[in-house]
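Objective 1b: paired records.
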Amino acid sequence: MSGHSGNDDPKAPLLAVVVHPPPNSDEPGPAGPATCQSLISCLLTPNSFYILLGPLLCAMICLLVKLQAAATSRNMLAVLAWMFAWWLTEAVPMPITSMAPLFLFPLFGIAAADDVASSYMDDVIALVLGSFILALAVEHYNIHRRLALNITLLFCGDPLNPPLLLLGICATTAFISMWMHNVAAAVMMMPVATGILQRLPESGPGQSPAVSKFCRAVVLGVIYSAAVGGMSTLTGTGVNLILVGMWKSYFPEADPISFSTWLFFGVPLALVIFLFLWAILCLLYCPKGSGPILSAYLDKAHLKRELTLLGPMAFAEKMVLTVFGMLIALWMTRSITDDIPGWGVLFNDRAGDGTVSVMMATLLFIIPSNKNKGEKLMDWSKCKKLPWNIVLLLGAGFAIADGVRTSGLAEILTKSLDFLEQAPYWAIAPLVSLIGAFITEFTSNNATTTLLVPLLIQIAKTMHVHPLLLMIPGAIGAQFAFLLPTGTPSNIVGFTTGHIEIKDMIKVGIPLKITGIVALSVLMPTLGKLQNA
């Protein structure tokens, strides 16, 4: 793979030709028993057990479980057990597991091949593809770095104010994460943050505690701000897109969740959690008197020097920003209110957010970059980093949602949850958030959402409450992966810098997780009901 990735020659073979040297008579050939033992040792591994676990669970359910419904509902339950076993253990790469419905659903009689395949490309996935192409353009032209340095320079203060500088770094990360995937935002912002920290003395016995604490605050601020900022928009994280896709799949007659609709709820929620994050980081890692100590190493001159090295904005950067601004404006105005319709009515509401996203991304391949003759702002070679793993996982989530509904499994789940009919909403919503927040520490945010949301839809039907009042707490709770480095790729990005330890994540993550659950429980019956009215 690595050998081919750097070769763009169209005449090059797709698969590299490997010429093996002739066997050397002086070298012993592979012995049969040794090879056999090696093969057995390769097979007898925990990963091999995890691979077999999925099909074994599937077979056990098909043979032993009897449901008072059509056989397809039992088969759907068996397939879910297979897929979630592979997702939770990662025995098979997650993108490959995400493609399993393409062969499991037809083979088990759950859905036709064409129907399953259609779940892997709809308006939500088009929204993901278009927005990621725009994010790659922003990254390619270093626009995110320029933005980060300008905002950080604004918040630096003179003399240096550590809490204010920390606010600038965190706010910049959260803002970038609103418009691109939170992992991409963390990856982009971490070099900017660590570049600022490089001005500080290296860790060691002689390092001031104030310097060490500020380094931890900055790294924790970047990874958590990326997660919090991503909650506020549909494009900030795959979890929100899975939620929107499942809502559309389960309730096709209901009004879709538009970009502006989600923004109305997501921004207040993210703002509450963000302000608490900044407050707790200042309380734990920015003690009084740290400003004069840090001023000896950090000042506006360093940030201005970094900004000067980038030079003035080129034509290409300005055009990418223009296209990005147009995209946000079109997202916000497609559907405004019932009394003030957006531009979507001009097309009989047939255009979606994915329509706009792909259209704006297409412009990047048409507008010249003004650098070299014939060169455009983007070409396909710059799109090699498109996150196909997220696209496939989204498709799997939508396919599962359709399968649970059409197989009859949804009705069985509803009947089994009758005991919740009298349960008060104020008791269920925090519990749903807590369950999502717990599971997400051990598996991916997207997989947690795909597992929880179909179940929450049935619980909502049983309780006779609006489904979004449970779907949203479950989905957002799945984004509260604040305790472990492996909880989300953003956490790994911060952990590999060497500035933080697991105890730092736990110290900040536990109160942050509790705050998120409380904020969700308070805002859902207020803003959530207002938005769903």
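Objective 1b, second protein:
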Amino acid sequence: MTTLLTFSLPLLFSSLVWSGYLEYDQDVLIPDDWNHAGRLDPTEELGLTFALKQQNTDLLESILGLVSDPDSGLYGKYLTLDEVSSVVRPSKLTQKVVHHWLLSHGITSCLTVHTEDFLQCSMTAAVAEKLLPGSKFHRYIRDGHSVVRSSAPYSVHDDVHEHLDFVGGLHRLPPKGQDLSQASSNRELKQSEAGVHLGVTPAILRTRYNLTAADVGTAHNNSQAVAQFLEQYYSPADLAEFMGMYGSSFKHLSQVDRVVGTQGAGKAGIEASLDVEYIMSTGANISTWVFTNPGRHESQEPFLQWMVLLSNMSDLPWVHTISYGDDEDSLSAAYMMRINTEFMKAGVRGLSLLFASGDSGAGCRHLGTENSFRPSFPASSPYVTTVGGTSFKNPFKVSYEVTDYISGGGFSNVFKMPDYQASAVDAYLKTVAATLPPQAYFNTSGRAYPDMAALSDNYWVVINRVPVPWVSGTSASTPVVGGMLSLINDQRLLQGLPVLGFLNPRLYQLKGKAMFDVTEGCHLSCLDEQVQGKGFCAAPSWDPVTGWGTPNYPELLAALLAE
């Protein structure tokens, strides 16, 4: 339960003593598409999130390794939220120092979470700028949506520096929605013939990945979720219409069971509609939740708000799919490391977090005259399962799959390669050594992604009651994979087995078994003389464009039911 904290112990801090930048490497530049709407009035209220330093994060990582490794005696023996709290809860000293620091600035309105490692406090802009020297709060507007952020880096008092990971609500603007729509909307639509299709629908996905009408959920204790961080919403009417049009061949639900957060009253967003419609048609007949922008204050970071929510809810769906990402180099290391710990907290509870790999191929970062590839986070986190994208070889037939050129993939510049994938990635680097991009473009020792893939091209989505074709992006492939993992969880639960939890150690142990290997095509990257727009290319077994390939559902089910 969320607890209201009111502090009553006075402690004097000299406001003159400060030097500690928690996020010295955080990009604070405001992108051009945000328009400056003025300095914040000193009396305006802000909501800031304080990430308190946790204890035993090494132990947490060890526990995650044990409960996720099929060869471990502790495989599937997940922790409750209470047990997670007892591992990571900040020390009494940390809590005392942070609380006293806030109180010394007159900040008394704070909420904590079950794990006690986040504090969310409200205060005026004037108090925030005094609390966090260097910060300067401004309002910015894009597409009619306003946010409050600091235009300059913040620091904290020396006495609290070692007790905080970062403060949320100063930097990191909500990402712009990926351009999912109608890459090929000018193609002529021909009459459908036998064996020919005009885009991806639930029936096409079920045919390609060998799901039958019997492959639907029946376990009462199973659920799945999508999380939305853009200013857009799914429409219940669109979902019902979509299922009416495309769900006749399998048992399904036509309503979301629970919305966590606030659904807007505006028009439905294409990405929100895509996520919900496809997780519920692949993970058919399974209770589905939607996490949406939780009535957010202008100064809140929507993704961070979702992470905080997970730390405060003991009863959560088992599978979460998220279509969200930022460039690694735009985020502070302190922020990413802490978010990784949050992913570990989810993993030890048996939650499966799936992130879209992104729609920019290998990406490109321009540094002076030199270019390099640009990995995306959280796709590059070692503690989530990252999903890339594919296309049909023949776009109008259920043929084999090739790389979707937008499919995000590559190597982290921040996180080292986890042990579970080392041999697979090493084999790839050796196999394609002669055709790899120049070494200066990527970090061969970093966490490599994606882990797997699914179709990400030419989807039909119902939006504002109208079927819309040619919707593409890894925002499509991720809920499709999520729905299939939910179906596998369903079968495991019916057999009295634990849910899949953090999938990667087991996925890499399968070495591509039960997957359709994708071996054709490359994804995009820097348009320069050296790589000429070409990033990595697909290859036999694992590759940094499509991971292990796409799921052959009945075989994957059998492999993941085998104990």
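The longest helix spans residues 474-494. The chain has a mean pLDDT of 89.
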